[in-house]
Amino acid sequence: MIDLKKVEDVVDKLANIEKICFVGCGASMSDLYPAFQLVKEKGNKISSRIFTANEFNYSVPSNIDDKTLVIIASLGGNTRESVAAIAVAKGKKATVVTITATAGSGLTKGADYVLYHGFHENYAAKTHKMQTALYLVVGVLEKFDGYTDAADFKDGLLKIDDLIIEGVKPLDKVAKKFAESIKNEPLIYVLSSGATYGTAYSTANFLFMEMQWLPAIVMNSGEYFHGPFELTEKNVPYLLFMNEGSTRHLDARALEFLQRFQAKYYVLDAKDFGIGNVIAKSVVNYFNPLILTGAMRVYAEKLSIARNHPLTSRRYMWKLENY
Amino acid sequence: MIDLKKVEDVVDKLANIEKICFVGCGASMSDLYPAFQLVKEKGNKISSRIFTANEFNYSVPSNIDDKTLVIIASLGGNTRESVAAIAVAKGKKATVVTITATAGSGLTKGADYVLYHGFHENYAAKTHKMQTALYLVVGVLEKFDGYTDAADFKDGLLKIDDLIIEGVKPLDKVAKKFAESIKNEPLIYVLSSGATYGTAYSTANFLFMEMQWLPAIVMNSGEYFHGPFELTEKNVPYLLFMNEGSTRHLDARALEFLQRFQAKYYVLDAKDFGIGNVIAKSVVNYFNPLILTGAMRVYAEKLSIARNHPLTSRRYMWKLENY
C-alpha cells in the first residue's frame, strides 16, 4: 500500500492552489493520466493540464504562477526533461511536487515536496506512482475545491492492492495463451477509454513498442468508430481494456464491433477482477487503470518470454549520448 | 478566407465565459486541437478541455455550467455523438457554439450559435474549420481573459489562405515521390508537437487509417524519445511535421535521430512555406497546423492515386446500421 499519511502531509502544507499541471515523459506521463482525468472530470474551479516534459519546458504556458501545482513524475528520477521541468516550474513560482522511486535522484532536488513510491515489490506496486498522484489530487480537490468523494477514494486505496495481487494470480495461463498467439504479429491495436486511456497509451508505447519492439496503435474506444475501425478485419489483433463505470459503453461498443468482424481480440475487463464489488461507484472510474495496469504486467511478462525478448532490452535508450 | 465578422458577432454576444470545452469526433476533434492548445497555453483564467464526443456524453464533467462555452464541430454536421453532445451541454446550462459546413444538419439545431465554414473550395478551405475555432477562442480570450495578441492573430488569418494556396502549388512532384515510395509500406509513423500534434493525429488516424487503410502510429515528437524511438531502423518510414515556433526543438531533435539511424523519413516543414516571414512570432505556433494540414492534403491525394484507393472509399463507415 502507498503511504497515505505522507501524501496527506504534503496536502496539509499546500496553500492556494487553483490549477494543476501534470508533467512527465513516456510511461511516467501515462502514470499521471488517471489523476489528470480525475481533475478534468471532477474539478470544480481547479483546472487540469498534462504535458510531456519537453513540451512544457519549451512552450511554457503563460499562466503558470504561485497558484499552480506542478506534479512531476519519473520512476528513476533522472529523466533529463522531467528534471529540467522543476526549474521551469519554480521559475514561474509554482509549487512543485515530484514523485519518484529513487532517493537522491535528480527529481528529489529543487522540488518543494518529494513523494516516494515502490515499484518492484509486487504487481500492485507497479501502480503506486499512479496511486500517489491520484491521492495527492484527491487531497487537493477536497481541500481547495469542494470535492466530496475523498473518503470513498481513500477506502478504495486501502483495498486496491489486495485486489490487484489476488486478481493477477489466476492470469498466468490466459496471459501465456495471449503471448503465444500474439508473438509473431507485426502490429497490435490497443483500445480503452476514460482514465484507462493512459494505460492503453502506456501499453502500446512502452510495453509493446519500447520494451518489445512490437509496433502498436493506441486509440480511444470512442475515436475508433470515427475512422480507424476501417482497419478491423478477421484475425487482426486488438487488445481492449474494458472499464467499469461511466465510459463502459464506449468499450462495450468496440467489443461488439470486434466480435462482429471476427478480429483476433483480447479483453482485459476490470469487471472480471470484481472491482465493482469493492470500489465505490463514485470513484470507480479512476481505479480501472490500477487493476488493468497490474494485470497487463503479467501479459507483458509472458509476451517477453514467448518472444525471447526481456522487458529490459534496449538498443538506444540509456546507451546513446544525449538520449 | 473565413468570415471573420460572423465569428466576431458570436463573440460579441457571449457573456461570462470561464471555461471552454472542445467536443468532436475523429477529424473534427483534431480540427479543434489547435484552438484547444491555444487556450491551454495562453489562457489566463480560462481553462481548456478537449473530448471525443461520446466520452463527453457518457462521462460528463461535473463542472459544465452557465460559465462554460462548449464548442462542437462536425464537417457534415450529422455525427450522431456530436449532435447528442449539444443536448448534454445545454442540459448543464452551457453556451454552445457549433461549427459545421452543412446548413440544416443536426449540428445546426439546438445550439446557441452556429458557425459555417467552407471545405471543398481549395486547399486553404480544408483548414477553415480550424481557423473558425481558433478565431472564436481568440475573441473569447481577448474579451474575457486579457489576451493581447488578437490583432496579430487576425493579421495572420488575413494572410494564411494565400500562403496555403501558393504553398501547395509546387508540391505535386515531391508529394508524388512520397506516394510512390510509401505506397507498399505496411505501416508508417507520424510525428509532431505543439498545436500540430492534432494534424499528426488526424493524418495517422483519418488520412492514413480511415481513408487509405494504411496502419499509422502517431506520437508527440517529445514522447518519441521516451520509448518508441526503439523501433527506428534503417528504411522504416516516418512522416515528421516540423513547426516554426516554440516546440521546433522537439521536432528537430526527432529529425536528427531519424537521420542518424537512416530511417526513411519525410519532412513537411512549416518553415519551407515561409510562415516565419508572414505570421507574427507571438501567434505562429497556432498557424503551423494550418499550413501543414493544407500541404498534407496534397500528399494524401497523391497517395490515394498511387495506391488506387480513393480518399472516399469506406467499408464500414456510413454503410452499417448504427455506425
From TrEMBL, chains A, B:
One of its GO terms (molecular function) is glutamine-fructose-6-phosphate transaminase (isomerizing) activity. GO terms for biological process: fructose 6-phosphate metabolic process; protein N-linked glycosylation; UDP-N-acetylglucosamine metabolic process. InterPro entries: FrlB_SIS, Fructosamine_deglycase_FrlB, GlmS/FrlB_SIS, SIS_dom, SIS_dom_sf. Residues 10-147 form the SIS domain. The keyword Isomerase applies. Keywords: Carbohydrate metabolism, Hydrolase, Isomerase, Plasmid. Its EC number is 3.5.-.-. PANTHER family: FRUCTOSELYSINE 6-PHOSPHATE DEGLYCASE, GLUCOSAMINE--FRUCTOSE-6-PHOSPHATE AMINOTRANSFERASE, ISOMERIZING. Catalyzes the conversion of a range of fructosamine 6-phosphates to glucose 6-phosphate and a free amino acid. Homooctamer. This is Fructosamine deglycase. It comes from Liquorilactobacillus nagelii.
